Amino acid sequence: MKMLSSLWILASIILILILASAFFSSAETALTAASDARMRQLASKGDERALIVEALRADREGLIGSILIGNNAVNVFGSALATSVAISLFGEGGLVWATIAMTVLLVVFAEVMPKTYAFAYADRYALRIAPVLKWVVRLLSPLSLGLRLLANQMIRPNPIAESDREEELRGLIELQGDDGNADDRERKAMLSSILDLNELSVDQIMTHRGAVSMVNADDHMDDILRNVLGSPHTRHPVFSGKPDNIIGVLHVKDLLRALGEVEKKGKM
């Protein structure tokens, strides 16, 4: 009778550990999948849980480290207890049964199902567990910090991280503009050119003053219109007297609009 009572207690502890493992797994998914924009909006309105979520995600290394430590600890402890119970019931063969049973339970009920739920309801679930997770991270933070320091000593920093980030940014720009309209493609070209500025020199992008298509404000309107329409450019610097005396910029669209208004008034 006493042995049966002990087995029930161990089984209850194992169940609690599986639930704790499910908590850690779902917390990792929810905190990484939650919307940054929605958390920022809620935080700006004074939502304390959203502020906690933002604070936790500000230190992603500490958050993920603490979650992994807690998750692995409860998984190892639960597997050890399950092995002990199985051996007491089935002898040495209980080791195999414990391994099979804990693998199925942990994969289904502590990994797949919790993470699927957390991903489907990421924002709501992240807000719900944030207060509890804050204290868990604080409790495990000393161990997490120690392991991070050890890992930093053993693993060298990635020397090509900056170039990887640049390639990622270029990829995002390409994805944004490929399926868009003409404005999106123009915006894509502009953003891509910004990334190439450090490879350009001034003489590659400058236009000599002598090659600039300019308009003399003192010319007759017919001459101005002929010059503007014969130019491939839409904007023309306007000077008065000398080319150095720039008094404005003429846009072809504004010129055509003004001519249209004059024509309408003439018909009236």
TrEMBL record:
<keyword id="KW-0472">Membrane</keyword>
<keyword id="KW-0129">CBS domain</keyword>
<keyword id="KW-0812">Transmembrane</keyword>
<dbReference type="GO" id="GO:0005886">
    <property type="term" value="C:plasma membrane"/>
</dbReference>
<feature type="domain" description="CNNM transmembrane">
    <location>
        <begin position="3"/>
        <end position="186"/>
    </location>
</feature>
<keyword id="KW-0677">Repeat</keyword>
<protein>
    <submittedName>
        <fullName>Predicted CBS domain-containing protein</fullName>
    </submittedName>
</protein>
<keyword id="KW-1003">Cell membrane</keyword>
<dbReference type="Pfam" id="PF01595">
    <property type="entry name" value="CNNM"/>
</dbReference>
<feature type="transmembrane region" description="Helical">
    <location>
        <begin position="94"/>
        <end position="112"/>
    </location>
</feature>
<keyword id="KW-1133">Transmembrane helix</keyword>
<dbReference type="InterPro" id="IPR002550">
    <property type="entry name" value="CNNM"/>
</dbReference>
<comment type="similarity">
    <text>Belongs to the UPF0053 family.</text>
</comment>
<dbReference type="InterPro" id="IPR046342">
    <property type="entry name" value="CBS_dom_sf"/>
</dbReference>
